[in-house]
Specification:
Length: 542
C-alpha cells in the first residue's frame, strides 16, 4: 500500500513538473532571444502593431523560392554623417539579402538623435506635419505638429538622396535596387513608396536590435484575433499557463524606457532567415550591430564605400560649383586645411571636468562661451590651440611655430597685427597667405574655419585671439560672403528647392562645408563627431 502511494505521489510530481515546464518554456525561450523581429505596421497608433513572431528558416520556403520582390527600410536620425552611415549599412544588407531598398529622404537641420523603435517611427511619421502646415492647418492641433511645430517647419527640409549622392553607380555596379520614398512617411502596411504590391500585416517584420531585448517587447501589440484562435485550440486548461506567462510578461514590461541603444548583434544567418516581404529596421547607423557575410562581393562593396563610392555629396550642381569657388579662393585643392570647433560641447565638457577656472561654484555650470569670463575664454582657447598643435600634421605644426619669412604676408602682419578685422584688409591677407603657402613655405597652414555658433573669428578677439595669433591665415564663411565669393542665392534654379519661405542656402551650409573640407589637405574637429569618420573616408583622387 505504501509503495502504491509513493508511486502515485511520484507520478503526480512528475506530471506537475512537466506541466510547469511546458507552461514556462515558451516564455523562457522568448526571453533568451537577443533580437526582436516583430510583425508590425504603422506606429502612429500602437494599436496598428501586430504580434511578434520569430524569423523562420528560408529553407524550402515557397514564398522565397519565387521571384517576388522583397524590401528593407529604416528610420533616419541625427546629422548627415549618421544618416549616410545608415544608408551605407542598408546597402550592405540589401546586397546580402537581395532585397530592394526603400530609402527615406535625407533630413537637413533640426535633427533628432537616436530613439527606441516606437519613438523613432513616430518622429519619422511626424514629418507629415510639413504638409499639414502648408495646407493651412497652423491653428489646428495634431500630434504631428506637436512634434514638428508649424512655427519652425521651414527650419528643416527633406531631399531625395539621389539629388545629393551618386546612387546610380552603386545600383549599376552591385545590382542593388533602390526606391526612394519621396511622398509621405508611411511604412509597413501604410507604405507610401511607389511599390506595386499590396502590403499585408503578415508581410512586415520589424528588426531593431538596438531597441528590443527579446521578442515580445514592450512595444508589441497583441493581435486579439490570433490570441482568440490560439485559446480555442488550446482549451481552458491553459488558463493557468497563460496566467503564469502574463505575470512574467507584465514584470518584464515594467523595465525603464531605453535611453541608450542596446548592444545586441543581428547575425547574417538570422538576417537571411527572415522570410517576410518587408524588413523594417529602426536605427541603422551602427555597422557593428548588423553582421553580413564576408563574401567577395561584400568585401568589394565595403572597400568601394571607403574609397570612392557613396562618399561625396556632389550631385547638386549648384552646391558643387559654390564649393569649388570657395576652394579656389583658398588656394585650390590640398592647399588649405579645415578646422571645426564645436564650442558648445567644448565649454560643457571642460566645465563639467572642472578644467575651467574662475567659475562661481554657487552658480550653474556655463553652457556657452559667452558665459565665461575673459580670463576663462583666453584660457580655453589657449588649451584648444595647444591641442590643435598636437593633432595637426607635424609639418604644419612646425611651420606655424616658426617665424614667418620675409614676404608680403610678413609685411601685412607686422604692420597691421595678426588680428585683421577689416574685410578689404582680410582679403589682402588671404591673397598673401595663399601666395606664401604656394611659393615660400608650402607647409604653412591656411585654414577654413567652422564653428557651431557661426561666429566670425575676426569679430571676437576676446574668444579667438589666441587662435589667430598662432594661425593668422584663418578664414570663415563670413569672409566668403563679405568678399562676394559665396552668394545667398546660389541654389536658385534647383527644381526641388522652390519654396520662397525656406532659406535653402542656410540649410545646405553643412553640406557645403563638407564639400569644401573634402578638398582640403587635412581636417581637424574638436571634439570629434561622426563627421570626422565620414571625412576620413574622403576619396583622395577627388
Amino acid at each position: 500500500m505504501i509503495r502504491l502511494q509513493r508511486l502515485v505521489y511520484y507520478t503526480l510530481s512528475i506530471a506537475f513538473f512537466m506541466f510547469i515546464s511546458l507552461s514556462l518554456l515558451p516564455y523562457l525561450k522568448t526571453s533568451q532571444t537577443t533580437t526582436s523581429t516583430t510583425v508590425a505596421s504603422s506606429s502612429s497608433a500602437a494599436a496598428d502593431n501586430l504580434s511578434a513572431q520569430d524569423a523562420k528558416s528560408t529553407l524550402n520556403n515557397p514564398k522565397l523560392m519565387s521571384n517576388e520582390e522583397r524590401y528593407l527600410s529604416w528610420f533616419p536620425h541625427s546629422d548627415f554623417p549618421e544618416q549616410q552611415e545608415s544608408f551605407r549599412n542598408a546597402l550592405r544588407l540589401a546586397l546580402e539579402t537581395k532585397r530592394t531598398i526603400i530609402a527615406p529622404m535625407l533630413r537637413i537641420n533640426k535633427i533628432y538623435t537616436w530613439l527606441p523603435f516606437e519613438a523613432l517611427a513616430k518622429r519619422y511619421e511626424a514629418m507629415d506635419a510639413k504638409e499639414l502646415c502648408q495646407r493651412g492647418e497652423k491653428d489646428s492641433v495634431f500630434w504631428q505638429t506637436e512634434l514638428e511645430p508649424c512655427d519652425t517647419i521651414n527650419d528643416w527640409i527633406e531631399v531625395p538622396w539621389s539629388t545629393i549622392m551618386d546612387l546610380e553607380t552603386i545600383k549599376r555596379e552591385y545590382g542593388i535596387k533602390i526606391i526612394e520614398r519621396t511622398q509621405g512617411h508611411g511604412w509597413g502596411i501604410h507604405e507610401t513608396a511607389p511599390i506595386k504590391e499590396k502590403i499585408l500585416p503578415e508581410d512586415v517584420v520589424v528588426v531593431d536590435v538596438m531597441s528590443f531585448k527579446e521578442n515580445g517587447s514592450d512595444w508589441e501589440h497583441v493581435d486579439l484575433a490570433q490570441e482568440a484562435l490560439k485559446a480555442a485550440r488550446q482549451g481552458s486548461l491553459n488558463r493557468f499557463t497563460n496566467w503564469i506567462q502574463s505575470y512574467f510578461a507584465t514584470k518584464n514590461s515594467k523595465d525603464a524606457p531605453l535611453t541608450q541603444p542596446l548592444k545586441n548583434v543581428f547575425y547574417a544567418d538570422q538576417l537571411n532567415a527572415i522570410d517576410a516581404k518587408i524588413i523594417q529596421f529602426g536605427a541603422l547607423n551602427s555597422a557593428a550591430r548588423y553582421e553580413t557575410t564576408t563574401s567577395d562581393i561584400q568585401k568589394q562593396l565595403r572597400k568601394a564605400m571607403m574609397k570612392n563610392r557613396f562618399l561625396v555629396p556632389d550631385q547638386t550642381k549648384q552646391l558643387t560649383q559654390q564649393a569649388d569657388k570657395i576652394v579656389n579662393v583658398l588656394g585650390g585643392k590640398s592647399h588649405f586645411s579645415t578646422l571645426i570647433l564645436n564650442m558648445t560641447k567644448i565649454v560643457a565638457m571642460d566645465a563639467k571636468a572642472g578644467v575651467l577656472k574662475n567659475i562661481d561654484p554657487n552658480q550653474e555650470l556655463p553652457t556657452t562661451v559667452d558665459e565665461l569670463s575673459d580670463e576663462s575664454k583666453t584660457e580655453l582657447m589657449e588649451a584648444i590651440v595647444l591641442e590643435l598643435f598636437g593633432d595637426i600634421p607635424i609639418n604644419q605644426a612646425v611651420s606655424a611655430a616658426m617665424p614667418i619669412k620675409s614676404s608680403r604676408l610678413s609685411n601685412i602682419l607686422n604692420s597691421r597685427g595678426k588680428i585683421v578685422t577689416d574685410p578689404v584688409d582680410r582679403l589682402e591677407l588671404l591673397e598673401a597667405c595663399v601666395e606664401y603657402h604656394k611659393n615660400i613655405e608650402k607647409r604653412y597652414p591656411v585654414y577654413y574655419f567652422i564653428n557651431d555658433k557661426k561666429i566670425a573669428v575676426e569679430s571676437r578677439p576676446d574668444i579667438f585671439g589666441p587662435l589667430l595669433k598662432m594661425f593668422p591665415c584663418t578664414f570663415t564663411q563670413n569672409d566668403m560672403i563679405n568678399w562676394g565669393y559665396q552668394s545667398d542665392s546660389y541654389l536658385n534654379g534647383v527644381p526641388h528647392l522652390n519654396d520662397p519661405n525656406v532659406d535653402y542656402e542656410k540649410l545646405f551650409q553643412p553640406l557645403l562645408n563638407i564639400l569644401i573640407a573634402q578638398k582640403g589637405y587635412s581636417f581637424f574637429e574638436l571634439p570629434t563627431t561622426p563627421l570626422t569618420r565620414f571625412l576620413n573616408w574622403t576619396p583622395k583622387n577627388k
